[in-house]
Amino acid sequence: MHKLSILIFFMVIAILHGCNSDSKSGQHTKGNSPTKDTTAEKISVTKTNYNIYIENSASMDGYVKQPSDFKNGLYKLIGDIHNYNLSQKLRLNFINDTICPQKVNAPTPDIIYFIENLKPTDFKNSGCEVKNSFLPNIISKAVSANPKDVNILISDCIFSSQKGSSKDFLSAAKESMRTFIKTELDRNDISCVILKLSSQFYGTYFIENKSATKKTEVLTGQKRPYYIILFGNSLSINYLLQKIKFSTYPGFETSYYLLTPNANKPKSKIIRTNKIGDFEIEQPATKLTINDAKAGGKNPNENQFQFSVASNLEFLKMDETYLSNSANYEVPSNYSLIAISKNDDYTNESLKGFTHVFTVRTSDLKQNQEVFIKLKSKLPPWVDSSSTEDDSNPLDSVQQKQTFGFKYLIEGISEAYADKYEGKEQFGINVKVSSNNYDKHGSSSKFPWLLLLLIGCIIGILLFFKNKKS
C-alpha cells in the first residue's frame, strides 16, 4: 500500500506538471510564437500581354501637339514595360467608339518613335477619332477586349456626350460604369490602379458645361490633368507595381488602388515610440497585446491614451502617397489614426524588418478592446477635388486641376469593387488593449475541471484499496 501511495503521489505530480506545461505551452503558442508574416514573397508570374489604349478624341489633341510631360510619361511607361521584361506581347491602340490598333508587338524603339512623333493628325487619320467620348463605353471596350491581359487606358477622362451634361446624365453614366465593372469582377480576378498626372496642353479645350457662354478656350501650355488607368489580374498588377514606380513619372500627382483584397495580417509589433499614458507590452511585442493601459500620465490631457505599432508593408506595392494617407484607413470609432510614418532609419535595430509605424490615439480608453487598423479601398478625397461640373473657365487656376464629371466615373468603379468585396480590406492589424490584463480577463472560465476529476479518481482508488485491505 505504501508503494502504491508513492506511485499515485508521483502520478499526481506528473499530472500537475503536465497541466502546467500545457498551460505554458498554450501561452507560447498563442503569444510567444512569432506572428505569421504574410508579407508576399517575390512574385513569380508568367509574362502576359500588355494592351495600351490611348483615347484619341479631339479633347486629347492638346497633349500631343508639342513635346510634353504626356509624351514623356508614355515614353517612360513603354520603356519600363520593355526594360523590366513585363510583357509577352505589347500592343499600342487608339480607342474611342472603336479600338484602332497602331503597333502590334512592334519593337520597342518603333513604339517610342511612334509616340515621339505623335500628332493630332495621327488621331484624325486613325479612322476612329471623334469629338465626343463616353467614358463608360471606352473603359468597357478597353477591359473586355482582352480581359486576361493587362489593359492600360490613357485618357483625360472628361465625360463628354452630345446627350448632355446634367447631374442626372452623369449619375446615370456612373451607374452604367458600376454595372459594367461589377459584371467583369464576377467573371474575372481584376485589380485596378488609377493614376492622376498632369501635362502641358497646347490647343483647344472643349468646354462641357452646356450653360457656358463660350464653348472652347485655347490653352498655350497650361497644365491639364490626365489619367492612366490599369486593369489586370492581381498577380500581374502586383508584379507590375513591384517593378514600376509611377511616383517618379513626369507630372505624377496621386493614385487610387482597387486591388483584389486578401486581408493580409502583416508582421507587426507594439513599440513605445510617441506614447501617451502608460502601458505594459506583453512579450513578445509581436503578440500585439497591451496590458495595464492608463491614460494621461505626464500628458496635460488626462483622458488621452496613445500607442504605436510598427508593421512590415513591403508586400503592398503601392505608392507611398496612398499608404501614408490616413483617409484610406479605418480604425474603431473611439480611436483616431494620428500618424503614419515610413521607417527610413536603417540604423534602428528595433525597427529592422518593419517599413511603417502607425500611431493611434483615444480619449475613450475601454477596459478591454481590440483596436484594429485596416487599409480599405476607400474613395480618396483627391477624387472629389479633381472633379468639377463647371469647366466654363479653363484658364482658372482651380479648374485647370479639375476634370469635368470625373468623380462620377471613379465612384462607379469604386462602388463596383465595394459591391464585390464588401467588408474586405487590403490588410488588417489587431491590437488587444486592456486596462488590466487582457488574456486573464474572464480567466475564471478556464478552471481545470479535468484535473479536479483526475485527482478525485485517484483519491477514490486509494480509498478502494484501503478498504479492501482492511
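Second entry:
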Amino acid sequence: MDLLLWIAIGFIIIGFVVLISMKKGMESKLAFITANMEDKESFTKAKSIIWWIVSTVAWGIVSMILIVWWFHKNFG
C-alpha cells in the first residue's frame, strides 16, 4: 500500500478517536451554557465549543482532501 493512503487512514482514525473522546465534554459544556445563560463562564465555554466545531470541520475537509488526493494519484 501507498504511504499517502496510510497517512490518510491514520489521520482519519486518530481524528475519530479524538472527536469521540471530546464529545462528552462538549455535551456537558453545552448543558452548562443552556442552564446558565448569563454567567461569564458560559462565554468561554461557548468559545471552546465553537473552536471544537471549527476544528472538526477542518479535520473533515483535510480527511476528504487526503482521500481525493490518494484516488487522484493512483487512479487519475
